[in-house]
What we know:
There is one protein chain. 72% of the residues lie in helices and 0% in strands. It has helices at 2-15, 21-30, 34-37, 40-57, 59-62, 65-73, 76-90, 102-106, 113-129, 134-146. The termini are far apart. It has 151 residues and is mostly helical. The structure holds protoporphyrin IX containing FE (HEM).
Amino acid sequence: MKTLFKVIAVVTFSAGTLVAPVTLAEEAVAKAPLYERLGGLKGITVVVDDFINRLVANETLNKNPAINAGRKSSPAPYLKFQVSQMICETTGGPCKYTGQGMKESHAHLNITEKEWDVMADDFQKSLDKFKVPAAEQKDLFDVVARQRPIS
Ligand code: HEM
């Protein structure tokens, strides 16, 4: 604890501004890896489970015959596992994602802008359902957007 206060004092002093120690401590918490802020694998798997359930039942997405066929070659439990591993790894967690790359696994699906937006909407519903805070939702959307398999 003493060391923490020393660090805070040095940072505060060297930054040349008067910042209350409690503010810096709060910032340190806010900067914890996104993986931890999401509640680790327990938080991630609960959201992914709900999200994939919505996606596989989504009529707009299933109208795309390639997406519909993909539901058979990659069953929901498999997708839940792979997507959880991927999110765990890309948010700074201890997992090692071993599935295919996003471009590789989605190229044949011909995902349109509209389908991407429909997916994002389902994702939002799952995040809201489990009350993921706004800051973590934004950070997670940024991670997902970087994985975007369409141009
Ligand atoms: C509109 C958006 C999306 C649709 C319609 C979609 C649909 C699918 C389908 C149908 C498959 C199975 C493909 C097959 O077996 O032929 C698949 C695989 C996969 N998707 Fe998506 N996906 C979308 C976005 C995403 C996003 C945003 C992520 C990650 C955050 C993601 C992660 C994965 C992963 C990890 C796999 C498994 C890759 C493997 O088999 O190794 N997908 N997706």
